[in-house]
Design a protein that fits this description.
- By secondary structure, this protein is mainly beta.
- The chain contains one helix and eleven strands, in the order βββββββαββββ.
- A seven-stranded antiparallel β-sheet has the order 4-3-2-1-7-6-5, covered by helices on one side. A two-stranded antiparallel sheet has the order 8-11.
- The radius of gyration is 15 Å and the shape is globular.
- About 25% of the residues are buried.
- Bound molecules: inositol-(1,3,4,5)-tetrakisphosphate.
- Inositol-(1,3,4,5)-tetrakisphosphate binds next to strand 2 and strand 4.
Length: about 150
């Protein structure tokens, strides 16, 4: 399927398993009309490798920028979140333009979803708490209205 957007971006591990590490990987992201997918990429050869993950657009509940916090280092300045039915994917754009482009395009593509969230967390989940509201349950209800 034809891509609406594609770019090499950095993602944080979703830590779906209890003991999985918190790390960051450079991945080639592709957004189509049906899914947001990310692939391995070989920077030296500029080749796209195996698909590492894919989120069906129908399963996305919220897409928003993440507010700057302690996690923001020079190479991770422009984060956005993709909240879906089985977790939250944090993605880091290389520029504000890229961040805005991805957030707007994703929001447009999910705008008719029936599972959209009413609230979300504007800051990161780090070390067992939501930095915006200090709630310690990962699935704690969002603390800010989400208006698409
Ligand atoms: C992996 O760490 C990678 O960060 C995975 O990202 C990530 O999967 C894994 O988290 C995490 O354990 P190691 O490479 O050190 O094993 P990627 O798939 O881009 O390689 P996500 O879910 O973020 O794709 P889990 O727990 O979510 O599997």
């Amino acid at each position: 399927q034809e891509g609406l957007l594609s770019e090499i971006l950095v993602k944080r591990s979703q830590q779906r398993r209890r003991i999985s590490p918190l790390n960051y990987k450079e991945r080639f992201f592709i957004l189509t009309k049906s899914a947001l997918s990310y692939y391995e990429c070989n920077m030296a050869t500029q080749k796209v490798g195996n698909r590492k993950g894919s989120i069906a657009l129908t399963k996305i509940k919220c897409v928003e920028k993440v507010l700057p916090t302690a996690e923001i280092t020079p190479d991770k300045k422009f984060p956005f979140q993709v909240v879906h039915d089985s977790g939250c994917l944090y993605v880091f754009s290389p520029s504000e333009d890229s961040q805005t482009r991805w957030v707007k395009m994703l929001q447009k593509e999910i705008s008719n979803n029936t599972i959209l969230a009413l609230k979300y967390h504007p800051c990161f989940w780090i070390e067992g708490e939501w930095l915006c509201c200090q709630q310690t349950a990962r699935n704690a209800i969002g603390c800010k209205e989400y208006q698409l």
